[in-house]
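Exercise: predict the fold of this chain.
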Amino acid sequence: MRSALLLTLCLGAWSLVAQPAWLPLSREVERPYMKVLQGVGSEAHTAVRPYRRSEIEATIPADSLRMVSPLPLLDRWAGVRNGRKFRWGPLADATLGYSANEEDPMRHHAGAGFWTGLDAGERWSFHLDAQAWNTRYADYLDTLVRATQVTPGEGYAYGDGPAFGHYEFNGHASWDPGRFFNLAAGRGRHFIGEGHRSLMLSDEAGSYPFLRITTSVWKIRYMNLFARMSDIRGSGGRIGDFGAKFTSMHYLSWNVTNRLNIGLFEAIIWSDGDSVYPRGFDIHYLNPIILFRPVEFQIGSPDNALLGAAVSMKVWKHTLLYSQLMLDELLLSEVRSGNGWWGNKQSLQLGVVAQEAFGMPGMHVRAEWNFIRPFMYTHSDTRQNYAHFGQPLAHPFGSNMQEAILHVERDRGRWRHGLRTSMAWMGSDTEYSYGNNIFRPERDRPPQPNGALINHGYRVGMDRLVNVFHGEVRSGFLIDPSTGTRLEASYMFRQRTEDGADDGVTHFFRLGLVCHFRERHPEQEVRYVLP
């Protein structure tokens, strides 16, 4: 059966293809297309991001292309409507912030960079973007940066404060060897899922070197992703001292009908070893078809393997219901017992997103719930946890948590107004691990009086319950559709409560030029301190 599937995927491989350029991984840049891409009748595989420009152009009617920039020069560079083969443009952030109730309340986020893309014939495309920033964060993010040495999604934090310097860059080459295949190699990020969060692979962590093979045939899209991740603990920001780890991931997306999509996911992470036992990239995981778990058993591997499934259903005209289920370890007998066995590592996502909600043009509404059991994404060898560059590869809060999200946003021409809220309930570790710090080994569980580790009784929210509410009101005027750059004003309210501790309240005002070329995740909480 595997040979037959491989043969099917290879049929017609040298047929004529379209230009293989890709959009940036940004919800703000993608937003003008989502009404049609997620609508009934669309064949797009919207859970696999980033998206291809050629597929969007083939799906979106000519009169529904995104608006041009109010600055004609930006359109001339970016080639939004003029079909330029070479495109480029600036990336800029310049915002001032005011964090109330803090001793020195003034904050800033300033950055500059560029992006460029080239279509070389009908089979090749190239992309490069780079940006550097200097930032002084609100206190809750400043605490996070000092604890993890990383700015969320924007690279290593250099400096001792109060402001930090950081940079990020991405680049790739994309090649279509035939109608059904695309190969891309470079440095970047990926996202699997329909939600604001992903429990499979999110864009929470920084960029990484990758090789991606995408196969699209019939109603199926199959992605193989091979990547080199980094463990930055103890490096002091020295790139040569970053520890190496590798991952191999598969995602199969099947449009069963024009309303129903089913996805299957599998991933494995392994460390590079050490000077005594160097390992490198394990060629056993290069097979694009075979399941990882059987390979693991065959070679007797202690590597970290995860499995997942996703289902999405289009209801009404522009509404999508979606879900994800992830498994790290599972014993059905322990699940049925309900005793909270530490090794039952699962996570679940349920959500709904509506375009033109309530019949109102430009209205976007999302509601989402995420649930992650203790010890999910951890491993006995912390070098093989589900993380990269000091940040989780899935949810930013790691594990031992649940979260409810509500987003309501309205587009009115170039104006975009929105309200984003989230409420998270999280467990907090003490001297022992209760499964929330994915950088701690599982053997750090609390002991019994006889010295043996406690195996049962682990619930979401233990040992100490931490509640974090995050709400933000935004209003902005679109300047550059190619990068999602807006003149934007916002107010953020954050409240953190913990049993036995004083409440932490943040009022943060922000005004200026904001570039949404890459996702930022301000909903953060310190979960660990990296050495």
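Check your answer against the key: DSSP finds seven helices and 22 strands in the chain.
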